[in-house]
Amino acid sequence: MIFCSSKETSVKKLSVFLAACSEKDYTLDNISKGVRIIGERLIFHVDVNSAYLSWEATRRVKNGESDLRLIPSCIGGDPESRRGIVLAKSIPAKKYKIKTGEPLALALRKCPDLVIAKPDFKLYSACSKAFKDICRAYAPAVEEFSIDECFMDMTGTEYTYPDPIKLAYEIKDKIRDELGFTVNIGIGRNKLCAKMASDFEKPDKVHTLFPEEVPLKLWPLPVGDLLFVGGSTVKKLQEEKIFTIGDLAKTDVRKLRECIGDKMSAQAHRYANGIDDSPVRAEPEEAKGYSNSVTLEEDVRDFDTADAILLALSDSVSAHMRSEGRKAEGISVSIRYLDFKTRSHQCRLEQPTDTTREIYETAKRLLRELWKDKRPLRLLSVALTNLTDEDFHEQLSLFEPEKNIRREREEKIDRTVDALRSKFGVDIIQRGTVMESGLQVARKFKGKQASEQEDA
Ligand SMILES: [Mg+2]
Fold first, then answer.
1. Full set of structural domains in the chain with CATH
2. Average pLDDT, the chain
3. pLDDT, tens digit, for every residue of 230-239?
4. How far away, in angstroms, is 276 Cα from ligand 1 center?
5. What is the pLDDT at residue 87?
6. Nearest-CA neighbor of 130 among 177, 162, 170?
């Protein structure tokens, strides 16, 4: 397979390429697996296979215990009380039709011998960092997409890595051999194709989805497999006899518009044709501050749900900051849409703060200013910056005694909550909105936010 745009340029570029790698040990066979065109986009998507489960399994194997990946097992809730939900499952557990997100009690009915392991978010953050560090050693830019996924922008690395497939195998094997867990790597000309490719056969595989491969590899898949095409959209599409991604790609956008609306139709049609131009956003070096974000499994479409998540984020990020005796003057909120576009908005407070309420109220206001179009969200984050040491700078609001009393009261409440949590665990106290929210998305989020608090 030689990936060239036109014959003439391809010959020219091929000779440039061959000259570039003539001194290295590249056999013709290797070269034929993926000649790179200078300047052409090249994106890798790295995705850990059953992340939570394989991270726990890796730890157990290192301790001489049995490998959770090889038996019906899952991560979730509390194995003793058998309460909570399945956060991740092994491949043997899948055979019992155990699903992520379902109650442990139900999973145990399906498979009474199911081995349940408690989530350990400290371990997950360490494993997440370890494999992303390996990716960073190869790529000019890495975007952390979630705890177990990242995009690597390999554009412009033609001379260093002439064979992208060989390189992907090298990275995949290095992660497996050094860290003990496996990943899939998807390769494409954009983030969408790379991500779709990494989802092909698992585990421990490298797949490509180049433009010329789209009809063969992408189009036969069911339409619900396309990134961000959810259940209700699938239903509407099926009513129009659109069953595969190929059906969708070949449907007239005008017809799609009537069926699934303006925005969704344009994006779904582009995606079905393998088109996406969103950039890989390398996160800037961790700014001095604290931040907490969550990538959600379900779209967030309304302020009620978003607020419940903002509260949990504000709560955990401020608790982390309080534990280190700092206060923040800057607060920022970031959101990410389904098409990977990320936006953020920040403000500077009059006085540094560390109270959950003040941070949450500010985050809520920022979100309202930022999220005017109400397009569905996949990621929310809250960051605290411009830090000061406690009580440094603090000026009493001389003319606002009520404000001072309120703040002191809130500070006391926060400290009590922090103390209880450090003694009894993060779940001992949930803030009102998070607890009251019966929404699936908030429930799923609860598991994730524990990670950040345990980190704190
Ligand atoms: Mg994964």
1. 219-272 (1.10.150.20), 290-455 (3.30.1490.100)
2. 81
3. 888 999 999 9
4. 21
5. 83
6. 177
